[in-house]
Amino acid sequence: MLPKVATDDFERFLKENGERLVDGLTALFGPTVGSEAAADAMSYCWEHWDRVREMANPVGYLYVTARGRVRRARGRRFLLLDPVDSQSAPWVEPGLPAALERLSEKQRVVVMLIHCFQWSFKEVAEMMGVSKGTVQLHERRAMRRLRSDLGVEA
Predict the structure, then answer these.
(1) H or E segment and range at residue 24
(2) How far apart are CA 101 and CA 68, in angstroms?
(3) Count of domains in the chain?
(4) For the segment 71-86, what is each residue's pLDDT rounded down to a tens digit?
(5) Handedness of CA 113, 72, 78, 43 (dihedral sign)
(6) Average pLDDT of the residues in 101-128
(7) pTM, 2 dp
(8) Within a domain: residue 84?
(9) 68 with 8, same domain?
(10) What's the pLDDT score for residue 91?
């Protein structure tokens, strides 16, 4: 069992960063697998807290670790986003889930985090372990492709 100070540090970390980790993994794997991956990542974090707490970017580390674990366990055999029923959700473009799945993984994560979860380019860059310019490039390319796939003019 970790000492009380370490437990308090972990709880503070979880409160400050848990939602970001869930968002990032949901953008990567969809809501079902993403939330499972986030729970597993937080469990891993607790088990290795003495090491994780000293890292410069623990959320980024947990994101990458969870991504690797899911890929080893599942490969690509899961549905990222459920199809949209235009009767029950007329405000959602029915072709959007399929168009998002056709993006590269990095492009999809960037678009989801920026446009769905309202993250800044800087926050996305930190999570993904890339530069802000790289995130901006992925976002521009992804939005261009989405507009093209969905027949939308900018």
Answers:
(1) helix 4-29
(2) 19
(3) 2
(4) 888 776 555 676 767 7
(5) negative
(6) 94
(7) 0.81
(8) no
(9) yes
(10) 75
